[in-house]
Queue: 2 jobs
Job 1
Amino acid sequence: MENQVLTPHVYWAQRHRELYLRVELSDVQNPAISITENVLHFKAQGHGAKGDNVYEFHLEFLDLVKPELVYKLTQRQVNITVQKKVSQWWERLTKQEKRPLFLAPDFDRWLDESDAEMELRAKEEERLNKLRIESQGSPETLASLKKGYLFMYNLVQFLGFSWIFVNMTVRFLILGKESFYDTFHTVADMMYFCQMLAVVEAINAAIGVTKSPVIPSLFQLLGRNFILFIVFGTMEEMQNKAVVFFVFYIWSTAEILRYPFYMLSCIDMDWKVLTWLRYTMWIPLYPLGCLAEAVSVIQSIPIFNETGRFSFTLPYPVKIKVRFSFFLQVYLIILFLGLYINFRHLYKQRRRRFGQKKKKIH
């Protein structure tokens, strides 16, 4: 006996951009679903209210829809999604004012217009937030990029200062004291590179990339660069002095302990020996470095006075000659002020790092 053609129960709901239809048919086979001339055509074999039969219906939409549709078969029903051509709210689904008997609202998905507008705004905000996150990068991605950037910066600085330290050590073992007097010409280019790159460190502290306080970082950067670029770099007479060896050697010794510690911190590693060296070796190295820098400034004062470099005369009516040596003497005061600031900062760091263990012992 030929199967009887019947109409299934259809439930509908809408949003501003979409229509949702739920056809109450289970075990659907061979569905033929299409939209032609703004009419939805449905025909399928399935089990509905009248048993296993061929079910069919046609719906002419109230307004224009896109001819492409999406449907999904489940064990109990057929879900159809139709896109409206214009995003707007419809007063009803079909062009005919009288609702077909087989059609009813889908209260599981039903929203009134105001609720649908709120849902639409929420989806739009979610979409914009997603785009914003994609353009800016997720917090996890930014954290990984930050760690990678800091790791590479510390690695480059470690390699640079290691080269200086090894070069000076080997030359001293081979040449002895003779190596003191040509240190500048041997390693100055690498020291220039490392100290110019150290500007990044102060910038990182200033913009919050690292948690280092700005003032100590800036004091160390400006102090070292003043010695390197002004006292040593502009005066050839200073470049052949033994004090250059001691300044460069102390700087490089401090940095080959500091930068590996920061590198391991970027990948959440803690090597206890390196940590102890990082928070302990500054105690002798910082005062020695400050003393070596002070000696270099004192030795440069008569040379700057003799050459008159960077000295100037104040304009009329004062006409007083200001020697650069005056600024060098002021710098000596600032140098020891910087030593105090850095010493205090590093002491606090060491106490935070090791203080708790000491309290437990007592």
Job 2
Amino acid sequence: MLFKQQVLLRQKLFVLGSLAIGSLLYLVARVGSLDRLQPLCPIDGRFGPRSQDEIPLRALQFKRGLLHEFRKGNATKEQIRLHNLVQQLPKAIIIGVRKGGTRALLEMLNLHPAVVKASQEIHFFDNDENYAKGIEWYRKKMPFSYPHQITIEKSPAYFITEEVPERIYKMNSSIKLLIIVREPTTRAISDYTQVLEGKERKNKTYYKFEKLAIDPNTCEVNTKYKAVRTSIYTKHLERWLKYFPIEQFHIVDGDRLITEPLPELQLVEKFLNLPPRISQYNLYFNATRGFYCLRFNIVFNKCLAGSKGRIHPEVDTSVITKLRKFFHPFNQKFYQ
């Protein structure tokens, strides 16, 4: 009897010991995998000596939570001074195009530790009332950031508003300008879909896309319809080129940003003179949503709002063909 108890005791000790060793090995492997999963690495020594007041990009990543608190207004003047935080005018602006993917682009660029985004559309340059409040009002609408970070804002109406290029030029003639475009007909239908959804929420009726996009009197494309006019990219770009050289623009392919975001983001990093920090680790495909979502670190993930990626209504194929034929010469000029 005593012998059997000793055997059972040894067996229990063996099982417990195996579990303990297994847990220890798992933790060692887990720590190793976490180290490998870090999306950012220190850049000390890789880009030359740093000035004393410059903050390493890795440090900026870990201070994002602090910046978030400041954005919510939970900071004293002493805390702001202590952390050397400022509200900077943007060094780059996403000026359009509406329904081209401006929100997705802004959120994806915010993955970079040297980028700070203005969460809301400010509408400073396209709104006369806001513009009259002055540049200091605009600056105070910007998020807190460290001096060596880049602040980016986006307001898609800037691209199509006549007064905006001159106003931005007066603020900063060397600013970098981002334009994200999609296939013009797809963009126009997406524009219509957003307006349609807003009408339906208010239990209001709305015309079918075909009736708005095609002039019933001439049976030709209705250029008075705003969704069509916005998609004539070259007409708007010509206005901007009167103030800024082409080198200060970067065109993002909005259709490719949906299916292959990383190559597009890497091109933007290069345009903004940022060290490459956004990797495939930061982007993962969400099969349920049908879109890429964002991974900031092993704890914090983010998907775009549910209003993004709306299902478009069915549109008569003859209307789509007519629109694509109409946009073709404008596209050719835009590419040139």
